[in-house]
Amino acid sequence: MPRQKPKKGLVTLLVSLLLLYGLYPLLRSTLFGGVFVNLFLSATFFAGVYAAGARKRGLLIMLSLGGPALILTWVFHARASAPVGIAVVVFTMAFIAYMIYLLLQSIQRTERVTSDVVYAAASVYLLIGLFWAFAYMLVVAAQPGAFHAPHVQSMIEAGGSLRMVGISIFLYYSIVTMTTLGYGDIVPVTPIAQTLSSLEAIVGQLYLAILLGRVVGLYVAHSTIAGAGKSADSSSEEECIQ
Fold first, then answer.
1. Which residue among 195, 208, 212, 241 has its CA within the 20 to 30 Å range from the CA of 131?
2. What's the pTM value of the predicted model, to 2 decimals?
């Protein structure tokens, strides 16, 4: 059976997410840091729509969530304000949540372990971290002292508007929390911040445990079926020879 090539959409989505996590923290302090995060998020939006491969209804839902998020992100960059910033975060979280749902469905429907399953599973893990990063931004917008760290407080401008440049701080905090690494340089102080951090750590570990069980189960099942097929073919050949 010829080897199936991975879907370009899934590869693009995974690469976009890796660039968002890896490059933007290095670029956020530059003059065009805000432009970079908008470009990375835009690439993630388009790659997510492409990778999900949703049908008409699902595609309409993705566009109705991702479209406003993408437009408002650039509007916020041009003219920052608290209502626009909160709207960006809410629409983006909804879009990411729906994309996670579609990718998990595709993983659940598969009957064997392929490169698509691996790329989709890795993308879901990074998307969970991105979802929680925006959730932390929403908490800080409502409670500026929710996290104890000097560089987090700089997210909130004098007028109280949410700055998208701060997403890199919480991308870092989110992935550290989800992997239960816990450097301790950013500490949740308020109950809602502590609850969200605890939930992310739990979800991250449960996802890895459940996904690993799913992938191993699929691999064992496929290997068993393939082995049984080869044994049957060998028996048939021996009978023909005799």
1. 212
2. 0.79
